[in-house]
Design brief:
Chain A: It holds the Pfam family HTH_Crp_2. Chain A: GO terms for molecular function: DNA binding. Chain A: Keywords: DNA-binding, Transcription, Transcription regulation. Chain A: This is Crp/Fnr family transcriptional regulator. The complex is a heterodimer. By secondary structure, chain A is α+β, with helices and mostly antiparallel strands. Chain A folds into 2 domains: about 5-140, Jelly Rolls, CATH 2.60.120; about 155-240, Winged helix-like DNA-binding domain superfamily/Winged helix DNA-binding domain (Arc Repressor Mutant, subunit A), CATH 1.10.10. Chain A has helices spanning about 5-20, 25-30, 115-125, 125-150, 155-170, 185-195, 200-210, 225-230, and strands spanning about 35-40, 45-50, 55-60, 65-70, 75-80, 100-105, 110-115, 180, 215, 220-225. In chain A, the strands form 3 sheets. A 4-stranded antiparallel β-sheet of chain A has the order 2-6-4-5. In chain A, helix 6 (about 185-195) crosses helix 7 (about 200-210). Chain A is globular, with a radius of gyration of 18 Å. The mean pLDDT of chain A is about 95. By secondary structure, chain B is of the alpha+beta class. Chain B has one domain. In chain B, strand 2 (about 15-25) and strand 3 form a beta hairpin. Chain B is globular and about 35 Å long. Classes of the chains: A alpha+beta, B alpha+beta.
């Protein structure tokens, strides 16, 4: 049987899946019964490397992580940000060799769930398999939006779009509200995610602050003008496919 | 190869930035921007605001001073001698 803290860990997974799908009581209980080994990781620590063949999946419980690739001369492209409840390497269940790396951006608590147990879970509960599948499809939808941002949006629009996305993702799992959310990452992290330099990130943030669209206090982002921020970036939350979206 | 610099102000955002146009044989090849105090540790560095032809870079570099910037530009241009050479230049 899982310990109390492990049950808490798996509650995060239930909450995440319930933000994008509907689970029955039986399915919820089956997830809570999964074995999970919890670990606390330092910022900037790799969880899985490009080329690894993992035998477990990583559930983020606290803190932020990212998927990334390193290209020539050490240039880093961040592919996605991950928060509590996400299983960023879920694909390793079916695609055995990692084609990118996963690392923490902040101090993070993560839980590892063995592939064997996840396979057994989805074999016995097709509804959970469907929820995981839906999660990876939403993941792909987010990648499509990032691709548009990278190729066709200005730095300003791209960053505004990312802020709207992060806010709604955090809100969906109860980590944000009243247009206020944690943003515990650096300008370099933002630059590496947006395909910009930190010089451009600095300029865009300054411009957004001067226009009173956002406030950044420590590691907290306050969206002061949601309508303007979402309009300027043509943000349409449909691609997040959130089942339970609290009124924004 | 000799480079020529020409000071200019560039409207990079809400404020104008002290910048340099960089010419090679009369052609504009790059714009360098001096990073102001608001860039923290990187204040005082020169940023490749724009690079043309072989100097176009999706991950534009920063340089400690103008000499370092010009060395980088010279190296890059030398690696692609035919690329973007102005037609009609002697």
């Amino acid at each position: 049987m899982p310990s109390t803290s492990d049950t808490h860990a798996l509650t995060m997974l239930v909450r995440k899946l319930e933000s994008i799908a509907i689970l029955s009581d039986e399915e919820r209980q089956a997830i809570l019964n999964l074995p999970a080994k919890t670990r606390v990781l330092q910022p900037g620590q790799d969880i899985v490397h490009d080329g690894d063949k993992p035998s477990q999946c990583c559930l983020i419980l606290k803190g932020w992580a990212c998927r990334y690739k390193i290209i020539g001369e050490g240039k880093r492209q961040i592919l996605s940000f991950h928060i509590a409840g996400d299983v960023p390497d879920l694909q390793s269940l079916h695609i055995h060799t990692m084609d990118h790396s996963l690392a923490t951006l902040t101090e993070a608590t993560v839980a590892f769930i063995p592939h064997d147990n996840l396979r057994e879970l989805i074999a016995q509960h097709p509804g959970i398999a469907a929820a995981f599948w839906r999660d990876t499809l939403v993941d792909a939808a987010i990648f499509r939006e990032w691709l548009i941002g990278m190729g066709r949006r200005s730095a300003y629009e791209h960053m505004a779009h990312l802020f709207c996305e992060l806010y709604l993702k955090l809100q969906a799992v109860g980590l944000a509200g009243s247009y206020c959310c944690p943003l515990p990452i650096t300008q370099v992290d933002l630059a590496d995610a947006l395909g910009l330099t930190n010089v451009h990130v600095n300029r865009v943030l300054k411009q957004m602050r001067e226009q009173s669209l956002i406030t950044l206090r420590g590691h907290t982002l306050v969206i002061e003008a949601w309508d303007e921020l979402s309009q300027v970036s043509e943000f349409d939350p449909t691609y997040l496919h959130l089942e339970k979206r609290a009124a924004a | 190869m000799s480079l020529r610099l020409q000071p200019i102000r560039v409207r990079t955002g809400s404020t104008d930035a002290e910048s340099q146009l960089v010419f090679e044989n009369g052609s504009l090849v790059a714009v360098l921007t001096h990073l102001s105090d608001e860039y923290g540790d990187e204040a005082g560095m020169w940023f490749l605001e724009a690079g043309f032809g072989p100097l176009d870079d999706p991950y534009p570099p920063k340089f400690a001073d103008l000499d370092e910037a010009q060395d980088w530009i010279t190296r890059k241009l030398a690696a692609f001698p035919a690329h973007g050479a102005a037609g009609g230049a002697p």
